[in-house]
Amino acid sequence: MVDKISTDIVIIGSGLAGLRAAIEAASIDSSIQVSVISKVHAMRSHSVAYAGGTGAVLYPDEGDSFDLHAFDTVKGSDYLADQDAVELFVRLAPREILRLEHWGMPWSRRPDGRIDQRPFGGHSFDRACYASDKTGLHAMQTLYNTCLKYDNITFYHEWFATSILVEDNEFRGFTALEIKSGELYIFEAKAGILATGGAGRLYSFTTYGHSATAEGMAMAYRVGIPLKDMEFIQFHPTGLVPSGILISEAARGEGGYLRNKQGERFMSRYAPEKMELAPRDIVSRAMMREIIEGRGFEGPNGLDYVHLDLTHLGEEVIDEKLTEIKMIAMKFAGINPVNEPVPVRPVAHYTMGGVHVDINGQTPVKGLWAAGEVNCVSIHGANRLGCNSTTDCLVYGYITGKNAAEYVLKKTDKSDVPLIQVEKEEKRIFDEILKGGFGDDPYLIRREMQNTMTQHAYVFRDGKSLEEGLRKIRELRKRFGTGRVSDKSREFNQNLINVLELDAMLEVAEVVLVSALARTESRGAHYRFDYPKRDDVNWLKHTLAYKTPEGPRLEYIPVRITKWEPKERKY
Ligand SMILES: Cc1cc2nc3c(=O)[nH]c(=O)nc-3n(C[C@H](O)[C@H](O)[C@H](O)COP(=O)(O)OP(=O)(O)OC[C@H]3O[C@@H](n4cnc5c(N)ncnc54)[C@H](O)[C@@H]3O)c2cc1C
User: Is the pTM above the cut of 0.85?
Assistant: First the structure.
């Protein structure tokens, strides 16, 4: 018998989006019980790692405007963003910056005491609010501390959600493992919010924390919710070689240069106006072209690179504004950026696609919302602009928290959890995987999957290589079997958790490849040598991937355009 925990709203994930949603839901009515489940402690969520900034229009008197922020976002997205959602997003963004400020966020300041903003790629105005280069740590601390003030928010740290319970297309709850005891529980609730973050660990060379393993996407996909636009994975230009740790865009925002082997600032060939601050897809492609054409440096394990040069910025600027970047370069590459250039190459950094939701963050299942990197509204389309993601987490945390709370207040009827689904999940985890699990070594399979994705679904793609990648992932899926678990104990079984994570990642990797193979054009982060042009006639549309026993089935829905007709992107 599986024990049941009853609550009103369950939020899976305690990153920026999950915490923001919890505060909103809890503050609407103190009678609403909010439970936040997270497989790692809140303050270990990936959001803590973000350094660069959070974008919003703060100073219209100085020339910024909602229309400008929206246009930059739409253009950056290579016109795949839904423009009504972008317009809503930019309007709600400034309030979120001020809310954080009121809750105690130590934003960096201008000399006159007002919140400072730094430049970020693809933005035509300095728009990134920051707190030195530890913005994520401060934002998360501010939100977490604020959550603790609410008696109606309960945290379940180190609990691992395994499935969504749905009946009659209505959300009924989640199943989750308490990692400490290894017991499975039912979280029965009227509303749910998925805030499980991105899928960066599909790749070997990645900026993500080890917990970004895609269960939220896989859980939704398994109950029939489509995954949208999964072919669009962002490669951030400056991953530190060889670890992949992010050198934040703040480095280029503060004036850093990219140079090839000849010492040339090569961005002048690709984006003569914006140079290093062109959008990420464009900078990443430029870097890879330099490397492919022999103007890069040879790196370890095929990780050829170019130089990020900060030496002209001077020690003072680097120490004050790029503290963490200096620390990372020194600790993880033995390089002091004050005197030496830093070796960098494009690195998997963001999942533009995700769980299909509407402009309200609502999934097709009644009572279930999704917020933050796990969802796809779509605001970021085919390429996200820097500093727009954390804003998205705050804005959609607010929207989904509010909508879920209002839904719960109105919902008077009680719906039971489907116990047959719980029994099936119990059987799957304990009998089929923990006791009877078979298959090849899951850690080898994970490494092969990550290498396959890095090789076949990276910055440059083509049909043949994508097909080969898909073939390999399907073969890995077979070799994975049910998932082999060597540690048979219940308590703190990290081996079991890793197998459940890999199960989700293999599923999502297949969706990325199938969606990328079908999209015979180049747009934003999805660039194909065999189809190098954007094709608005046939492809100005979102991909929806549905789970079927034969693999993903694709459907398409139109992009919503309000003001900005698609044009060629020039920077
Ligand atoms: C190094 C780095 C730097 C970045 N810099 C910037 C920046 O400067 N500006 C910007 O706008 N964006 C930046 N981004 C992107 C941005 O930080 C992320 O998109 C955002 O923080 C994601 O927040 P989230 O709340 O959606 O998810 P996350 O913060 O990733 O949190 C996911 C949560 O879900 C939980 N979870 C996942 N699966 C399960 C499960 N099965 N059961 C229970 N819990 C689960 C995790 O424990 C975690 O609490 C950066 C990203 C990285 C990796």
Answer: yes
